[in-house]
């Protein structure tokens, strides 16, 4: 698969009361198509987050947005622009970071978690030197991460509470 330049177009989900930030790498083709985070139906992110927060799994984008804000959880991605083949994080080249500092200034975010290895790696390289806020890497909820069962993912994500 050929590299394609992708520009992040989904705005961050947060408000002034957000306390925890979950960062992916960059939206997948399916997420870009639906216009919201973790849009692929096989991605376990929404099932994991709902279980951790003690909520029903949200279906609509509005329900997903409301659940996150109700629990002071912000969502965005580490990368603003990059070259990538499909949804393959391992293919990412020429990554340019999102302005995470702005979210930190406009909210009460004190803890940041990466929803996968590439997000954590690029955050450490491109963003942490500017913000000084460390990141904790969580396992990917992608179906490609088959080594992690839904139950193990839920347990790992409980650290956000």
From TrEMBL:
Keyword Hydrolase applies: yes
TM region(s), chain numbering: none
GO molecular function: DNA-deoxyinosine glycosylase activity
Annotated Uracil-DNA glycosylase-like domain residues: 11-158
Enzyme Commission no: 3.2.2.15
CDD domains per record: UDG-F6_HDG
InterPro entries xref list: Hypoxan-DNA_Glyclase, Uracil-DNA_glycosylase-like, Uracil-DNA_glycosylase-like_sf
Source domain of life: Bacteria
Protein name: DNA-deoxyinosine glycosylase
NCBIfam families the record matches: hypoxanDNAglyco
Protein species of origin: Agathobaculum butyriciproducens
Keyword match Hydrolase: yes
Keywords, in A-Z order: Glycosidase, Hydrolase
SMART domains membership: UDG, UreE_C
Main enzyme class: hydrolase
Gene3D superfamilies named in the record: Uracil-DNA glycosylase-like domain
């Amino acid at each position: 698969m050929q590299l394609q330049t992708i520009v992040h177009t989904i705005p961050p989900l947060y408000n002034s009361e957000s306390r925890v930030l979950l960062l992916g790498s960059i939206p997948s083709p399916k997420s870009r198509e639906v216009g919201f985070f973790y849009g692929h139906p096989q991605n376990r992110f929404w099932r994991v987050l709902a279980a951790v927060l003690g909520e029903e799994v949200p279906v609509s984008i509005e329900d997903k947005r409301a659940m996150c804000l109700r629990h002071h959880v912000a969502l965005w991605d580490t990368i603003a622009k990059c070259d990538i083949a499909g949804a393959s994080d391992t293919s990412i080249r020429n990554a340019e970071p999102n302005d995470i500092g702005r979210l930190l200034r406009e909210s009460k975010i004190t803890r940041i978690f990466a929803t996968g290895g590439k997000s954590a790696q690029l955050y450490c390289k491109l963003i942490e030197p500017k913000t000084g806020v460390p990141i904790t890497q969580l396992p990917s909820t992608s179906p490609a991460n088959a080594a992690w069962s839904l139950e193990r993912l839920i347990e790992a994500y409980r650290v956000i509470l």
